[in-house]
Amino acid sequence: MCAFVLSLVPSLALADDSLTAQAQRQVESGLVKPLADQESHASRFSRSRPIPRERRVRVTQTAPAFDKSGRAFLSFAVDVRFRGGEWQENDIVGCAYTKSGDLFVKRGDAFRPASFLFGKNADPVAGVCQAAPVARS
Prior knowledge:
Layout: H1 2-40, E1 54-59, E2 65-66, E3 72-81, E4 88-97, E5 103-107, E6 110-113
Antiparallel strand pairs: 1-3, 2-3, 3-4, 4-5, 5-6
């Protein structure tokens, strides 16, 4: 029996690793790449913030959390580096829903769909990216 239980431990770790890798790919393809594409069309003479030279995605949870609806999500952060500078952490923070692929970003105290960063009108969504309290017995 003990050997059976121990044989399950590596597979559970791999499941978490694959969810983390999946969330990282979601953020890279659904947020980082589209932002880079959008910025490649921006004017270099704009008064807006300089374009980051690099971005990196960090999934900040090792195991998924569940919101009030029971949907699993993982929190992430996008760090940026400008020309010749150090990494600036948490430039964008949010969460990725592992099953649906939905991405939300935090602005102020609220979470909005990631499309908000691309100029789309997106109102805050209540209850997303917030872990539901664990029921205790």
